[in-house]
Write a structure and sequence with these properties.
This protein is about 40% helix and about 20% strand. The chain contains 12 helices and 11 strands. Helix 2 crosses helix 5 and helix 3 crosses helix 4 (about 55-70).
Length: about 325
């Protein structure tokens, strides 16, 4: 478990670092967990919440690890914790040990099928809120020892940084030790509330969309190119109400704010919305299921990924609406 010490100008500190290389096998795995948590979040309290520890315990473990290695791993400031050169040097070794620990847990999990622990799922807010959230009750009933953290946000969580255990993404990741499978294609259509349509000129062709109000994303806050819907070369579209959040766009549309491109698996099941130009305006995007390679064999990860895949398959016709 030893790693090559990083040269530094502080010779005394460097000698201590070399001396303690021989004792690396003695330090506590929880000290390394604390180190990784703080390194990935930059915050003691955030790392503590993710690790299920008290922040004073995390701080104490960091101090113990630094004392054991004879090197300062973090620069502390009001802005948070930043890795020193020694901390950067330790990072790949700590992640390697973490991977070995997770693999060992997975191997043991083959024999022990008891499902328990925490699983954090990162997903786009629409899919997370309308597809995953309704499944939580059944999952909790089936596996009472399982704690699910559903992070349904307008953004992307990094599995490589252990910000999530499982992610549903709009495109497959291009790097990292990740296992990816295509979950489904899904359709998007143009929707509006009847109150809006009744008060405005009728929309019979794409050209009729000109002059109508649109609800959509804020261009410079788009976290994925797949969300850039408002590219209509034949129509002058003005997005007069913009939000970074899909649920906010949905609620604004229901209130009669304008026309909005929405996923069919959300909007098609809502009787308060009407599809506009279903033959002329229809988009297709994809969802991908991503798991870190070190976690894929864990029983709790397998249970949750199976649940997600099963939910999509059982509702396949809705995802392919239009």
């Amino acid at each position: 478990m030893a790693f090559l010490p990083y040269p530094c100008q502080d010779t005394r500190n460097h000698r201590a670092f070399l001396h303690n290389e021989a004792t690396l096998s003695d330090f506590n795995w929880n000290d390394l967990r604390a180190f990784l948590g703080v390194a990935r979040t930059g915050r003691l309290t955030t790392a503590a919440a993710r690790l299920g520890m008290d922040h004073t315990t995390v701080g104490r473990r960091i101090t113990a690890l630094e004392a054991g290695l004879g090197a300062r791993l973090f620069d502390r400031s009001p802005q948070g914790y930043a890795l020193t050169r020694h901390g950067e040097r330790l990072m790949p070794t700590a992640e390697h040990i973490e991977s070995l620990t997770l693999r060992a847990a997975a191997d043991l999990g083959q024999a022990d099928q008891t499902v328990g622990g925490v699983v954090r799922i990162g997903a786009p807010e629409g899919f997370g809120s309308y597809v995953l959230a309704p499944l939580m009750a059944d999952l909790a009933d089936r596996h009472p020892g399982l704690d699910i953290q559903l992070v349904a946000i307008s953004g992307v969580l990094s599995l490589s940084k252990r910000e999530a255990d499982i992610a549903v993404t709009l495109s497959p990741p291009r790097e990292g030790r990740l296992v990816t499978r295509k979950l489904t294609d899904y359709g998007l259509s143009l929707y509006a509330a009847p109150a809006y349509l009744d008060a405005r000129p009728p929309i019979r062709t794409r050209a009729d969309m000109a002059g109508h109000r649109f609800v959509g994303y804020i261009d410079d806050l788009l976290y994925a190119p797949e969300l850039d819907y408002m590219q209509a070369p034949d129509v002058d579209i003005h997005v007069s109400l913009q939000s970074s959040n899909l649920i906010a766009q949905l609620q604004a549309t229901l209130a009669g704010a304008g026309l909005c491109v929405l996923p069919d698996f959300i909007a098609a099941r809502d009787p308060r919305l009407v599809r506009v130009l279903p033959e002329a305006v229809h988009l297709q995007r994809s969802l991908w299921l991503v798991v870190h390679a070190d976690l894929k064999a864990l029983a709790r990860i397998r249970v949750v990924t199976r649940m997600i895949v099963s939910a999509v398959r059982s509702d396949r016709s809705l995802f392919k609406a239009g």
